[in-house]
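Summary for the lay section of the report: proteins are chains of building blocks that fold into shapes. Here we show the chain for Glycoside-pentoside-hexuronide (GPH):cation symporter and then a coded description of the shape we predicted for it.
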Amino acid sequence: MKSSVANTINSKVAMPFHRMLAYASTDAAGNLLYTTVTTFILYYFTDVFGLSIAAAGTILLAARILDAFDAPVWGFIIDHTHTKWGQSRPYWLWMAFPFAIFFILMFWSPNLSATGKFWWALITYLLFGISYTGVGTPITSILPNLSNDSDQRIKLNSTRSIGGMIGYFITATFTLSFVAFFGGNPQSGWRNTAIVLGIIGFCLLMFAFSDTREINKPKKAVSILNSIKAAKANWPWFILVIVFIFYWLGNASRTSVVVYYTQYNLGHKEFASVLNALVMMQLIGMVAIPFLVKKFRKTYVLMAGMFLAAFGQILIAFTGQSFIGLSIAWSIASIGTGISVTLPFAMLADTVDYGEWRNGIRASGFLTAIGSSFAIKMGSGLGGWAPSVVLAHAGYKAGAVQSSQVLSAIKFSISYLPAIFFIIGGLLILTYIKFEKQEKSIRTTLLERRGSLDED
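The coded shape description reads as follows.
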């Protein structure tokens, strides 16, 4: 038995490239639409749709907090799913259309009263968020079931993150150009751009569904009670959830004010597209992860990524009107965020193993739903809301010449605020190290248990 287990651990089952590409397309679709929202929604609500900064901030906070709590629900649903396609994979088929249609409706810009606009924005934003959880949760929950090899999981996750980075690059870099190209006015431009991106996202999710496969399929659905029990005393999972929330706090606070900073502080709104394009520097961090984790523990690599992101954000405060200096600082931070946004997903797969080892329950849906979708939504919601509070307190008015107090608030929101969140997350991840040291023995024990069960 032990020899068989050792052979299972040491064997490297190569994942076909087309299947890795299919898995990568999930994050490409998710980021294509979700990044458009996280990057531009505050600006769209205030400067295009016509909401006040206070109303927009309220929508971001209320909808995201409410929406964040649908993550465990989706996790329960996935753990309780038992189909011929697996647990996670079918949701890309079932949720692709709602995901695309609510995204389009959010940018539809109907001619309504101020109250009507508020409720339209709140409801469409909330429904889009719920549908995103239905698409995004399976992206992470399927990873522990795609491969049993930790190195293979890291490669899969890095490939998936590169796909997500491509989706991010397209929307963050070209969205403003698409808006100008597709419409005679901002409202029609945003509406038509949303339609095009929505169709592309739908097609990518269909491709993901058609070519991914789950090799670890539970013989029966996991009950809601057992899903909750899987989190009992799962300390590495708790740590990752908190750290990931702080990452998304930092990331959302930095991206949500890019357009404000380039338009009002620099006087060149179009430079926002350059900065968003430079987020592609995240690829350096993403590609480096498989090499770094061979030399250093994942805990230290993630901590370094968070600290590097914080360093880059702090540098922005000292770049003044220098576009080159700002680009360098933004690129440094992006390399750090590339590591910080990618590695936790692979580490979450390891916490699913820990939960099975500790509690005898493999609840990949629930654990990864909280660790990914809940953390992303809670962190992004609060991270997008925080700058709106800072700007509202400083007296921001859409389209107006901003006071020095407002300009300082915008500068703080793009520099020091995200740095603070990144530093806190980087310090907290250090508590994960003692659990990482147990991973190999845990995996060996799990394979022995599964072998025994198969013999029975």
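Put simply, here is one thing we learned. The two ends are 13 Å apart (CA to CA).
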